[in-house]
Amino acid sequence: MEIECAFKVLSKRQIINRGWKTVEQANQEVRILRKLNHTFIVNFISSWQNQTKLFIVMEYLPGGELYHLWKHLRIASNSLIRFFAAQISVALGNS
Predict the structure, then answer these.
(1) Which of 9, 45, 75, 86 has a C-alpha 20 to 30 A away from that of 51?
(2) How far is residue 16 from each of residues 4, 26, 28, 51, 53, measured CA to CA in Å?
């Protein structure tokens, strides 16, 4: 079985510089991703780390992250904002 994967490689130094208080907070996010199973949330596959980097493997979804799409669009219509808000709400279980 072939699976397309996305690899995310994070520098532990950059994690801390971006506002994370500790690398442990990033590890906590990985633990949460590992437990999630929802249609609207990318599937976690694996993770590991060495002394300087944290590696995360997730299901590959074309189109990239919502944040980058939002930033690229710059101006979003009300209907597009409602669409994204509804998807996020359903993903978080608040539908």
Answers:
(1) 45
(2) 29, 9, 14, 14, 12
Residue 35 C-alpha from the chain's centroid: 13
Into which CATH architecture does domain 1-61 fall?
2-Layer Sandwich (3.30)
Give residue for tokens 């219509």: 77
The b-or-e profile of 64-91 (16+ CB within 10 A means b, else e) is: eeeeeeeeeeeeeeeeeeeeeeeeeeee
Q: Which residues contact 4 (CB under 8 A, 6 or more apart)?
A: 59, 60
41's tokens: 């949330």
Q: Domain extents for the chain?
A: 1-61, 63-95
Question: What is the pTM for the complete model shown?
Answer: 0.68
Tell me if residue 79 falls in helix, strand or coil. Answer: helix
